[in-house]
Amino acid sequence: MRLLLLGFALWLGVSTSAQALEDIPHDVVAELNHKLPVEYPGVRSLVIQRHGKLILEYYRNGLNAATLHDARFATASVVSTLVGIAIHQGKIKSTAQPLSDFLPSANDPAADRRVRAITVGQILTLTAGFDPSVKQVGRWAFPVDFALQRALVSQPGAAFSFNPGTAHLAARILASATKQRLTDFARKNLFTPLGIDRFLWRIDGPGGSELGYTGLELTTRDMSKIG
After folding, report:
1. C or N terminus of the chain, fewer CB within 10 Å?
2. Where does the secretion signal sit in this chain (predicted)?
3. Which domains does the chain have, with CATH numbers?
């Protein structure tokens, strides 16, 4: 099976005691190094760390440890982590807080009346109920008003659907709550503390905002730091 992975990092845990488990056997590491380019040519990179030690590092031809990889929809997981930090800092009360507290256009008459009560948690878990078939405007953009005025195809909180437009709303909630660009908030509160100093984050257009559902680029080692 061809793996459609642009970058992959596996974090196996950090030792919390002096009695650490044995390292991964060398023959397993050797087998991975052999199989990856032959059986899984779609894999761009693989990093395995255990107990804070680098166990395996693989890069496809032409790539290396400094290469930035598009995290694609894993970008949404990073946004969710940042929302958790904002909650810890008191900038967001809880995941039960309604999105209308941060995005006033949720109260627009053009939006379904149920939208204003959708919670931060329902946005993060992709259970808001928005129609997943509605695509972005142009190549990347999901303007907030457009995203909020999509039809609801299920009751908020009732069902999961893979939905880039909903994931993007999490980024806009975070920007509103922190009154900062995502890159600035992420750099200060997540990336710098983890020792991540190189990253890119695609915006939705000239002078626009960072995307919440794709577009974050990190090295594979730095992806493993986030987990």
Report:
1. N
2. 1-20
3. 8-59 (no CATH), 74-195+204-215 (3.40.710.10)
